Amino acid sequence: MARSKEHLSLLLLSAVVASLVGGSSAGIYHIVGAGKGWRIAPNRTYYEEWARTRNISIGDKLMFLYRSGVYNIVEVPRKDLFRMCSMRNITNRYQNGPTIIELTQPGPRFYFCGVGKHCEEGQKLAINVSAVVQQSLIDVDAEAEAEDEAAAAAAAASSSADATAAHRLLGLAACLLASASWLLMSIN
């Protein structure tokens, strides 16, 4: 039990680091489902509630943490197909977890798990990608201040090409750390 808490703490720390590091023009890494990852939802509105607390913009990345063969990601172009968990007219299918999807176009995006009845049980995510970076809808006092400071530092650092490359590598490293933490947690 204590080991699971350690893994969860490491995963959450990795998520915070990924969010802080990703605060520049390289976009923010959003770990879908936070500590739960991409799996059968504990309730039918879990991913809807998760998405409601996020401001997702062009250049951001969705990070789906899941085990290959157990879960997948299906993207469909329309809300009606999403609501029905329809496998018709699929835009993209991802089967090798974890998966990082870079958001390059504004507008609605619809994802669900195409395995069994996972979608019907709530493993589905609808988001709206904003064309511009928006201010957060939630106020997380200390975290928000830390994010603002990190974003300001990242903006100053991104003035040179070397700093930008280093920043992107740090973001990738944070995502890899989050993936490794999640995998360790799912093994135990």
Structural summary, described in words:
The chain has 188 residues and is an alpha+beta fold. It has a domain at 28-136: Immunoglobulin-like (Sandwich), CATH 2.60.40. It contains 5 helices and 7 strands. The protein has helices at 2-21, 46-52, 79-83, 141-157, 161-187; strands at residues 29-31, 61-64, 73-76, 92-94, 99-102, 107-112, 124-129. The protein has a 4-stranded antiparallel beta sheet with strand order 4-3-6-7. A 3-stranded mixed beta sheet has the order 1-2-5. The protein is globular. Mean pLDDT is 73; it is low at 1-25 and 135-170.
Helix-strand blueprint:
Blueprint: H1 2-21, E1 29-31, H2 46-52, E2 61-64, E3 73-76, H3 79-83, E4 92-94, E5 99-102, E6 107-112, E7 124-129, H4 141-157, H5 161-187
Parallel strand pairs: 1-2
Antiparallel strand pairs: 2-5, 3-4, 3-6, 6-7
Helix pairs in contact: 1-5
> Which stretches of 5+ consecutive residues score pLDDT under 50?
1-25, 135-170
Radius of gyration, whole Å: 17 Å
The general outline is globular
Q: State the oligomer.
A: single chain
Using the coordinates above, name the CATH class of one domain.
Mainly Beta
Distance between the terminal alpha carbons, to the nearest Å? 10 Å
Strand percent estimate:
15-25%
**Average pLDDT:** 73
Q: What structural class do you assign from the helix and strand content?
A: alpha+beta
**Helix content percent band:** 40-55%
CATH topology of one domain: Immunoglobulin-like
Largest sheet: 4 strands, antiparallel
CATH superfamily of one domain: Cupredoxins -  blue copper proteins
Strand order of the largest sheet: 4-3-6-7
